[in-house]
Design a protein that fits this description.
Mean pLDDT: 87
Shape: globular
Number of strands: 19
Strand content: 35-45%
Radius of gyration: 20 Å
Number of helices: 7
Distance between the termini: 46 Å
Helix content: 10-25%
Low-confidence stretches: 1-20
Largest sheet: 19 strands, parallel
Number of domains: 2
């Protein structure tokens, strides 16, 4: 069902499914229907296979059994969008609807593979999950500015942010940021900048070739990093001696999961080196 305001869906897609690689594999399971397997068995096999959000939409449209076995997504929409030519225009509308108190607003945004040129920050002012089709091929040229309330959570996964003229990801005294399998590249200032938020997380992310620090946490903020695929490298290209791969101010902290060390995730950074600042950077 679509909203007349934004065109987002409040349930599964009613159009023909997209033949993504995973969906093609899953279609082999259609034999389940003919062999009379139970709903419980279907739920178990899908829990094991773990279809993506996009595949879930496709699979739920194949048959009633799959529709019952897979939970529908929350209210969602996708980009590119027929009504809005850029992500910033799309979120401008969403932010407007959210500020009016309406609940008819997407909680999930699926971004297709491609190069999406934003030429600046995309402003995000409410709790939402942004899911790219793939980190390698879903590329947003620009950065994300996270606003919202302190109790809000903005989740970003499976995409690349590249060439922001300011920070690649910026959150200041608002929503908590949760990055999963995100690459932040060639930012004009810090790759990831977090200030005054204490619940922000990064998992299996790459931050590289920022002119400023790779990750800067300030104003009493806290960033928790997890995932053995995490890399913070070749940042501080702007030749500032007080910039680091990992940087904190006096009241702030960066916490690493027990499987990580500063030496393994932060490498080959310029400026003052791979880590520094007056705050705390430690493995838990």
């Amino acid at each position: 069902m679509s909203s007349s305001l934004t065109g987002e869906s409040t349930g599964e897609s009613k159009t023909s499914p997209n033949n993504t690689n995973a969906a093609v594999v899953f279609t082999n399971l259609l034999g389940i229907v003919n062999h009379g397997y139970s709903l419980t068995w279907c739920k178990s096999i899908f829990a094991y296979l773990g279809p993506t959000a996009k595949d879930t939409m496709s699979l739920r449209s194949y048959c009633k059994l799959f529709s019952k076995a897979l939970k529908p997504l929350p209210c969602w929409t996708s980009f590119p969008h027929p009504k809005y030519s850029t992500l910033n225009k799309l979120f401008g509308r969403f932010n407007e609807v959210s500020s009016s108190g309406s609940t008819n607003i997407p909680k999930v945004l699926l971004i297709d593979n491609g190069v999406h040129d934003e030429a600046g920050f995309v402003d995000i002012d409410y709790s939402v999950s942004i899911i790219g089709e793939s980190r390698e091929h879903c590329i947003v040229m620009g950065g994300l500015l996270m606003k919202g309330k302190k109790e809000d959570d903005i989740n970003v996964s499976n995409l690349t942010l590249r060439g922001s003229k300011c920070h690649g990801v910026c959150g200041n005294n608002g929503a908590s940021i949760h990055l999963d399998n995100v690459s932040v590249e060639n930012s004009g200032y810090s790759g990831v900048y977090v200030r005054r938020t204490k619940r922000s997380t990064m998992k299996n992310c790459n931050v590289s070739r920022s002119k400023g620090s790779g990750l800067f946490v300030g104003g009493g903020g806290l960033m928790t990093i997890d995932g053995n695929a995490t890399t913070i490298h070749h940042n501080c290209t702007g030749a500032f001696s007080n910039r680091y791969g990992l940087r904190t101010d006096s009241s702030s902290s960066i916490h690493l999961a027990s499987s990580l060390t500063i030496e393994t995730i932060s490498t080959n950074n310029g400026g003052g080196g791979n880590c520094g600042g007056e705050g705390t950077i430690k493995t838990l």
